[in-house]
TrEMBL record:
Pfam families: SBP_bac_5. Residues 1-27 form the signal peptide. Its main location: periplasm. One of its GO terms (biological process) is peptide transport. Keywords: Signal, Transport. Belongs to the bacterial solute-binding protein 5 family. Residues 75-448 form the Solute-binding protein family domain. This is ABC transporter substrate-binding protein. GO terms for molecular function: peptide transmembrane transporter activity. InterPro entries: Peptide/Ni-bd, SBP_5, SBP_5_CS, SBP_5_dom. CDD domains: PBP2_NikA_DppA_OppA_like.
Length: 538
């Protein structure tokens, strides 16, 4: 029998951790499961939450007008029973389902839809996703403070909402399935105020039963959920504060059902070398790019030559090896499977001497000092160390700030921003399968606002206009033309070099022997990291 423990000291340390860990609901409760995470969930407010850890939990608690077929990127109606689009592509009329209830028992109406959209757009909410609703008529007026309502959202009757756009938007239905447009009850938001993210009330398949900060978060089945046959589970317990290596061992011991932080890279070969365990590993292609941001609004990264030099300094092949080859080196923001990806694009070659020359031309012949922020979950700190070494080779001394991912996100979204951020573990996996999603929130001007995810603080207004023109191509017959237009946008992004695209990562996760359901639900392309509404126990 193969031993899980290689050294006695390690065995004692891990055993102690297991003994001190909370008992798992899945071990006793039949149709409830346990998921572990190292860090606490930052928020469950759909207008605010925007990291991979809370993304799928929010989707378990709330719904939007549109949804996706489970395990796919195929859109379907959600809280809307049906919809109609005007011939010019600028007016969307949604008919709401009858009998949908919030977790507090109140029926959802068209008023809730209007309120929810306006709450996200309202600058006081500081939603990092407000820009997704930017095509709705009245958006600019609300953002500037000259209006308190979206003129483009009209309540026809309690079950009908009409949304008028200021321009055609090929992504609008996808945005209606994104958490920033999820529907919330005004009375619960007003009751909880800034704490709504800790006291979420939605229409979703699950509702919050318990949240002990730093320890556990428990969801229970919503018996009034509008989708027949969902959810499959009675409940989910998220245990917080679990080191990924310990979480993996608990999955191997049958005490935990899913390691939320994935399979630790240091343990990947060991797991794949065990046929029984390898059979429970789920692999999926995800629309992902890991990248390094540089704060383009602050010296020295306000200098294009410095940013180009950093691009040339990074050895991407070596970084891919740190994660056991579970990625391919990237040379542009879009992943290879996304429409708009530029085939044959070379990007910036790895060239230490050329990087040094550019730095000298920029007045930094002796290099400079900076900070590199990184999430503190393995393998991210090790990747940051590799980046640090690459930067040192061209004279850049980067001190690593290894923090909980919520703190890294806060630093990147603050007004002053962070000098450099390695995005691994936090960004960017597509919110929806469209090239625009890799631009607006993380490279567009709107995303550079306080609380936004454009951590490079990059704003090219001319490029924003080109992006808007690309999204105005709503005719499916122009799909190839639209993809080409997006390709040109990303060529220009790389010319401005606000990022270093590092790799496109595959997703691997593991499930316990008692977990059932289609593999696609565990690497769901739009419910990252997994679709809690449809996974089930055997």
């Amino acid at each position: 029998m193969r031993s899980l423990f290689k050294r006695s000291a390690a065995a004692l340390a891990i055993t102690a951790a297991l003994l001190s860990a909370p008992s798992a609901a899945s071990a006793q409760d039949g149709n409830a499961i346990t998921v572990t995470y190292k860090d606490d969930i930052a928020t469950l407010d759909p207008a605010i939450g925007y990291d991979w850890q809370n993304f799928s939990i929010i989707k378990a608690l709330f719904d939007g007008l549109m949804d996706y077929e489970p395990g796919t990127a195929t859109l379907r109606p959600g809280l809307a029973e049906s919809y109609e689009i005007s011939p010019d592509g600028k007016v969307f009329t949604f008919k709401l389902r009858d009998g949908v209830k919030f977790h507090n028992g109140r029926a959802m109406t068209a008023d809730d839809v209007k309120y929810s959209f306006e709450r996200t757009v309202n600058p006081a909410t500081q939603s990092p996703g407000a820009g997704f609703l930017g095509s709705i008529e009245g958006f600019d007026a609300m953002q500037s403070g000259t209006a308190t309502a979206l003129s483009g959202v009209r309540i026809v009757d309690p079950r009908t909402v009409e949304v008028m756009l200021s321009r055609p938007d090929a992504t609008f239905l996808s945005v209606m399935a994104l958490n920033f447009s999820f529907i919330v009850p005004r009375e619960e938001v007003e009751k909880s105020g800034a704490d709504f993210g800790r006291n979420p009330v939605g229409t979703g398949a699950f509702k919050l039963a318990e949240w002990t900060l730093g320890q556990r978060l428990v969801l229970e089945k919503n018996p009034d959920y509008y989708r027949e046959g969902a959810p499959k589970l009675e409940g989910i317990t998220f245990e917080i504060g679990q080191e990924p290596v310990v979480s993996l061992l608990r999955v191997q011991n049958g005490e935990v059902d899913v390691p939320g932080d994935g399979i630790p890279p240091a343990k990947f070969r060991e797991v794949m070398g065990n046929p029984e365990e390898a059979a429970r590993v789920v692999e999926g292609v995800q629309l992902h790019t890991g990248y390094i941001t540089m704060n383009t609004k602050a010296a020295p990264f306000d200098d294009l030559k410095v940013r180009q030099a950093v691009n040339m300094a990074i050895n991407k092949e070596r970084i891919v090896q740190i994660i056991n080859g579970r990625a391919t080196p990237a040379n542009q923001p879009l992943p290879p499977t996304m429409p708009g990806y530029v085939e044959g694009f070379e990007g910036y070659r790895y060239d230490v001497e050329a990087a040094k020359k550019l730095l000298a031309e920029a007045g930094h012949e002796g290099g400079f000092e900076t900070e590199l922020f990184v999430a503190n979950v393995d393998p991210q700190p090790r990747i940051a160390q590799a980046i640090q070494q690459d930067l040192a080779a061209v004279g850049i001394k980067a001190s690593i700030q290894s923090l909980a991912q919520a703190n890294v996100i806060a630093a990147g979204g603050s007004a002053e921003g962070a000098p450099m951020i390695w995005s691994g573990g936090m960004a960017w996996i597509a919110d929806f399968p469209d090239p625009s999603n890799f631009y607006g929130p993380i490279l567009g001007c709107a995303g550079a606002a306080d609380g936004g995810w454009n951590w490079a603080k990059y704003c090219n207004e001319a490029l924003d206009r080109k992006a808007a023109d690309a999204d105005a191509m709503v005719d499916p017959a122009k799909a190839a033309e639209r993809a080409a237009a997006w390709g040109e946008v990303y060529r220009q992004v790389m010319a401005d070099a606000p990022w270093v695209p590092v790799f496109n990562e595959k997703r691997y996760t593991m499930r316990s022997a008692r977990m059932g359901g289609d593999d696609a639900l565990y690497v769901d392309p739009v419910n990252t990291p997994m679709n809690y509404r449809y996974v089930e126990t055997r």
